[in-house]
Write a structure and sequence with these properties.
Length: 323
C-alpha cells in the first residue's frame, strides 16, 4: 500500500513532529517548540535559522462544525488580504504561517474603547474579501448551528448537558429579529484570544477552525460575547461597524447585536460541552492552553461553560424582556 502523502491528525506526536521537520519549505534544520494557546489543535513554533513560523495541526472539529475545506479557504483569504499572518504552506490538516511577535488580546483589552475600532476594521476587511474565496465553505446560520450543537450534546451524552438544554427555547425569541442576509466570510469563533497585537501596534485575526459564510454582524457580537462586554462597549462595536445613524437605527442595531451576542453565549456553552465529550487534546495540553489564554474563565471546558452561562444569565436578566 502506498504511503499517505500528507500528515495525518491521528499520528502520534513524535511522528507529526518528524513529518514537520522534513517539510520542503525549510532552509535549514528547524527546532520545534510547543505553542500552548488553542484548545482544539496542536501548535508549534518552528525556528528556521533566524525566522520563526507557527505550525498548526488541525484537530477533528466536525462535531462542533469545523470543516477543513472551510478552514483552509478562510486562512488563504485572510492571509491574502492582510488581516492574518502570511500563509507559507498548507495541506489538509497542516498549515504554516509567519510568526507574529506580539500577544493575544485579553478580556481586559476589550474593556477599552480604543481596542474596538482596529479589530472591527479587520473584520470588515475580511468580509470585503469574501468574493475571493476559491474553495467550498460551509454556510453558517447561528440559530440552526446552535440548535444542532444542542442535539450533538445530547447525542454524545456530554457531561452536564441536561442543565443547559432549556437554553434552546431562548433562541426562538432571538431569531425572530433576523431575516435573510447576504453571507460574508465570517470567522465564526472570534474569541478574544483569536485577536493579536504585535510589537509594532498592528492588530491581527488568527485561527479559522470554524470559519464559514455567515451573517455580517455575527463576528462582532461573538467577540463581545466571549469578552463579556458592557453595554458601553457593545455600543462601540455597533458604532464602529455601522457608523453613525439616527437614534432609531442605532437602537435597532444594538438590539440585534445583543440578540446575536446572547446566541453566541448559548452556542459556545454547547460547543464546550461537545469538546469535553469528544476532543482528542490530552489533559496536559488542555491545561497548558487554558492556563495561557483562558485563565479568567476556568481550567477546563466545563468551567469555561459555567463561566459563559453565568454571563448569559446576567445578560438575559437585563435584556431578555426586550426580545
Amino acid at each position: 500500500m502506498a504511503e499517505r502523502p500528507y500528515l495525518q491528525r491521528e499520528w502520534p506526536l513524535e511522528q507529526q513532529k518528524d513529518y514537520i521537520r522534513k517539510l520542503p519549505l525549510w532552509q535549514s534544520p528547524i527546532t520545534l517548540e510547543p505553542l500552548p494557546g488553542g484548545i482544539q489543535n496542536r501548535n508549534f513554533v518552528a525556528q528556521d535559522g533566524n525566522t520563526k513560523y507557527v505550525v498548526r495541526v488541525a484537530g477533528d472539529l466536525l462535531n462542533i462544525g469545523g470543516v477543513l475545506s472551510s478552514t483552509n479557504a478562510a486562512v488563504e483569504v485572510a492571509s491574502a488580504c492582510g488581516v492574518s499572518p502570511k500563509l507559507v504552506y498548507q495541506e489538509p490538516v497542516l498549515s504554516v504561517v509567519e510568526w507574529i511577535n506580539g500577544r493575544n488580546l485579553t478580556i481586559e483589552d476589550f474593556t477599552r474603547r480604543e481596542t474596538i475600532a482596529p479589530v472591527v476594521d479587520l473584520i470588515k476587511r475580511l468580509q470585503a474579501a469574501s468574493e475571493t474565496v476559491r474553495w467550498a465553505m460551509v454556510y453558517f446560520d447561528p440559530f440552526f448551528q446552535t440548535r444542532q450543537s444542542a442535539r450533538m450534546c445530547a447525542h454524545l451524552k456530554a457531561r452536564g448537558h441536561e442543565a443547559y438544554m432549556p437554553l434552546v427555547t431562548v433562541l426562538e425569541r432571538l431569531e425572530r429579529h433576523f431575516g435573510p442576509f447576504k453571507p460574508v466570510l465570517a470567522h465564526c469563533d472570534l474569541a478574544y484570544v483569536n485577536t493579536m497585537l504585535d510589537v509594532s501596534g498592528r492588530y491581527w485575526l488568527i485561527d479559522y477552525d470554524l470559519a464559514g459564510l455567515g451573517p455580517p454582524e455575527w463576528d462582532i457580537a461573538e467577540l463581545a460575547g466571549y469578552s463579556y462586554t458592557s453595554d458601553e462597549i457593545d455600543r462601540e462595536f455597533v458604532r464602529c461597524y455601522f457608523g453613525d445613524g439616527s437614534e432609531a437605527e442605532v437602537e435597532r442595531h444594538v438590539l440585534r447585536h445583543r440578540a446575536y451576542k446572547i446566541t453566541s453565549l448559548i452556542r459556545v456553552i454547547y460547543l464546550l460541552l461537545i469538546l469535553d465529550a469528544s476532543c482528542g487534546v490530552s489533559a496536559e495540553e488542555l491545561k497548558a492552553s487554558m492556563g495561557k489564554n483562558f485563565e479568567n474563565v476556568g481550567g477546563d471546558y466545563l468551567e469555561f461553560a459555567r463561566t459563559h452561562y453565568e454571563f448569559f444569565r446576567k445578560e438575559w436578566a437585563r435584556y431578555g424582556d426586550t426580545f
